Amino acid sequence: MSKFPDAHHFASYLGFVPHNKITGGHVISAKTDRIKSSAAQAFRKLIPSISQTDTALGAFYRRLAPRIGKAQAIIATCRKLAILFYNTLAYGKAYHEHGEVIYKQKQEDWERRKLLNLAKKYNLKLVANSG
Fold first, then answer.
1. Which 8-state DSSP code applies to residue 104?
2. Distance between CA 18 and CA 40 in Å, rounded?
3. Which domain holds residue 46?
4. DSSP state of 22
């Protein structure tokens, strides 16, 4: 893993990051490169089984798939998995699975904070629905 300076370079090598074509400050295309790496194919083959588990990665995939499509959700989940894989091998960091429930709780907390910040920005008052 010493070939790659960090996990993001490893994910880019596998083709799991967008290749932004920018001209005049505008993004023309943001597709991922077609990489025929056997390692990239191995990561892609893991995703269907991960998507059916009660793990944080499974919940991540299921949250993205309806919004951005299954193909892009697979790539996004592969990128996340590749970064976890790199950190495990390069630094010996153990991956602690927190589960789907904690992942969803963190997502709800993030959405709540975002909503409060938007309300504060526009001088609005939030009222809890009691029904």
1. H
2. 14
3. 7-121
4. E
